[in-house]
Amino acid sequence: ASPAGHWLTVRLEGRKANRDGIGAWIRVKGTSGREQWNRVTTTVGYGSSSEPVAHFGLGKDTMATEVEIRWPGGGR
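Above: the chain's sequence. Below: its structure in token form.
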């Protein structure tokens, strides 16, 4: 069986309001140049919730070369 690949998990921590970063967009670029976007949310489907963590499947990339966070208030 082939290896499952690499993962990056991002948990945001704000300093003022919205300390969990709900609604923030996160962009991750791997060493292969592939970009991915994910949004921090706690809603997953009807009537359920999850922890405010963004997961990125990096595949064969062993690390991210860029991580950009766009906070709901406009900060980066």
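The two ends are 40 Å apart (CA to CA).
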